[in-house]
């Protein structure tokens, strides 16, 4: 990596940017950062790492961070920063170079490593974290860059010395306000795991065709020698891989897909799931993971294939798969009060909601499941999947739906209707309620819950502190 004296980061308090800032500091760089809201725990993490923090964004921050009138030699800009941000405007006028984090990685970190990119609409965070943990467990000392917090990895951004592999969560969201292309366009992939392709991110993609075009671009960028490991359960993925010119390995849960790898004989016992790995119809292995649900078995199968292809010793690989403890906000137990267990999950796309509830039913078969859902993502606040959500809650015994998060910038005829979802769920014979305020929802759910129940709270945001308030109310 090029030697930098001083780097200033805008949007430094995000999980990834904070981890990146800490990495730079450990590398001997002076690091300063600014953000609109600086508060614990990230403010404590950054301060303890020796990073100087400034808030709010301000043109004056550039004078505060300068040394004898000398500005940083690089600015790194988070994708939360919009054109017109006052501090960004001052940076643009300063003449000092600025880059996004994906651009920084493309230029300074990725050219010399074998880059293992995990992409897809679903499962990116879990699969990339599981891959990074398994390689770490096997003594491979990988670098990694993951958009979530793992229970098994100490950082979200980690670049050790002399690292051969770089595991990257391949985000299809855009890079920066001046660079409206997917982040993974910058990741110089050698190997790509493609978990799924569906319509999502309705704020930046016009339709499914635009989403598929983005993933096609990733596949076309695979460097030699490289490989594409693709889950072929949907026509969208099957269509995309036809154009691949690299080594292709396929996997699926369905034998009818005629994938190279499949699994059979899945068993769930408490926290653990075990399954047989089949390669071209012949049993190859039996694997145990500390995750639940068929979707997580598919994630583990993809990691198994990648590690096998990289030549990782089988027993070390199996040990890594078995010891992975999962991701925060993915089927995460937040507490049990008076016999009522509360689970936190990031699920917001209808496919993710369905798979998550299916997995929880497997893991907790004796508990009645209450699902609480907040339509908060750019896609879920729109009516794109109004019908699909109706069919996603079939495993629940009761469903509480919050009013959609801020729809003020969404045209009325495109807005998702929580009340319509409630009506649809009730038509399928499931008790359903709509609520408009967090406190109202907490009271309704706490009153409805009984000893032995499981409450699955599904949101991709903070949900107004719903879970801590619910635990207190219970």
Number of helices: 15
Strand order in the sheet with the most strands: 8-7-9-6-12-13-14
The number of distinct β-strands equals 23
Structural class: alpha/beta
Biggest β-sheet, characterized?
7 strands, mixed
Radius of gyration: 23 Å
Shape: globular
Distance between the termini: 52 Å
CATH class of the largest domain: Alpha Beta
Mean pLDDT: 93
Beta-strand content: 15-25%
Percent helix, as a range, is 25-40%
What does it look like?
- The chain has helices at 15-26, 42-48, 61-65, 86-94, 101-108, 124-137, 208-220, 235-241, 294-310, 314-323, 350-363, 386-390, 418-427, 438-448, 466-473; strands at residues 6-10, 30-34, 52-54, 74-77, 98-100, 114-119, 143-145, 157-158, 165-170, 174-176, 179-182, 191-194, 227-231, 247-251, 261-269, 272-279, 282-289, 332-337, 340-345, 369-373, 398-402, 431-435, 454-458.
- By secondary structure, it is α/β, with parallel strands linked by helices.
- The protein folds into 3 domains: 6-101, Rossmann fold; 109-323, UDP-N-acetylmuramoyl-L-alanine:D-glutamate ligase (3-Layer(aba) Sandwich); 332-473, Protein-Tyrosine Phosphatase, Chain A (Alpha-Beta Complex), CATH 3.90.190.
- A 7-stranded mixed sheet has the order 8-7-9-6-12-13-14, sandwiched between helices. The protein has a 6-stranded mixed sheet with strand order 18-19-23-20-21-22, sandwiched between helices.
- Helix 13 links the parallel strand 21 and strand 22 (431-435).
- Helix 6 (124-137) crosses helix 10, helix 9 (294-310) packs antiparallel against helix 10 and helix 14 (438-448) crosses helix 15.
- The mean pLDDT is 93.
């Amino acid at each position: 990596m090029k030697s930098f004296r001083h780097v200033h980061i805008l949007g430094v308090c995000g999980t990834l940017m904070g981890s990146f800032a800490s990495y730079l500091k450990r590398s001997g760089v002076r690091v300063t950062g600014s953000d609109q809201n600086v508060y614990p725990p990230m403010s404590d993490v950054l301060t303890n790492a020796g990073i100087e923090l400034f808030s709010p964004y301000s043109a004056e921050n550039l004078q505060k961070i300068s040394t004898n009138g000398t500005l940083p030699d690089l600015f790194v800009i988070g994708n939360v920063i919009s054109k017109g941000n006052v501090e960004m405007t001052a940076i643009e006028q300063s003449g000092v170079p600025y880059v996004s984090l994906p651009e920084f990685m493309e230029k300074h970190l990725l050219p010399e490593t074998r880059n293992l990119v995990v992409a897809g609409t679903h499962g990116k965070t879990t699969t990339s974290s599981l891959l990074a943990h398994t390689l770490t467990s096997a003594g491979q000392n990988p670098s990694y860059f993951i958009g979530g917090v793992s229970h098994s990895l100490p950082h979200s951004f980690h670049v050790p010395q002399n690292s051969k592999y770089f595991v990257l969560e391949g985000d299809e969201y855009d890079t920066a306000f001046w660079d409206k292309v997917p982040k993974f366009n910058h990741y110089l992939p050698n190997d790509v795991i493609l978990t799924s392709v569906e319509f999502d991110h309705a704020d930046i993609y016009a339709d499914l065709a635009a989403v598929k075009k983005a993933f096609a671009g990733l596949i076309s960028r695979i460097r030699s020698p490289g490989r594409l490991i693709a889950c072929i359960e949907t026509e969208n993925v099957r269509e995309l891989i036809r154009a691949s010119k690299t080594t292709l390995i396929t996997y699926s849960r369905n034998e009818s897909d005629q994938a190279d790898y499949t699994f059979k004989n899945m068993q769930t016992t408490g926290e653990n799931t075990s399954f047989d790995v089949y390669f071209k119809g012949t049993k190859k292995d039996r694997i145990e993971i500390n995750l639940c649900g068929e979707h997580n078995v598919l994630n583990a199968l993809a990691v198994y294939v990648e590690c096998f292809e990289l030549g990782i010793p089988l027993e070390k690989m199996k040990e890594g798969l078995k010891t992975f403890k999962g991701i925060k906000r993915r089927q995460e137990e937040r507490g049990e009060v008076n016999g009522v267990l509360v689970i936190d999950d990031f699920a917001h796309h209808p496919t993710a909601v369905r798979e998550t509830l299916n997995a929880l039913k497997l893991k907790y078969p004796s508990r009645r499941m209450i699902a609480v859902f907040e339509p908060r993502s750019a896609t879920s606040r729109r009516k794109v999947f109004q019908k699909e959500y109706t069919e996603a809650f079939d495993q629940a015994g009761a469903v509480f739906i919050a009013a959609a998060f801020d729809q003020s910038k969404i045209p009325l005829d495109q807005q998702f209707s929580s009340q319509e979802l409630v009506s649809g769920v009730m038509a399928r014979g499931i008790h359903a309620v709509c609520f408009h305020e967090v406190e109202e929802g907490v009271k309704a759910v706490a009153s409805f819950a009984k000893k032995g129940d499981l409450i699955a709270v599904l949101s991709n945001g903070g949900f107004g502190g719903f879970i801590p308030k619910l635990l207190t109310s219970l």
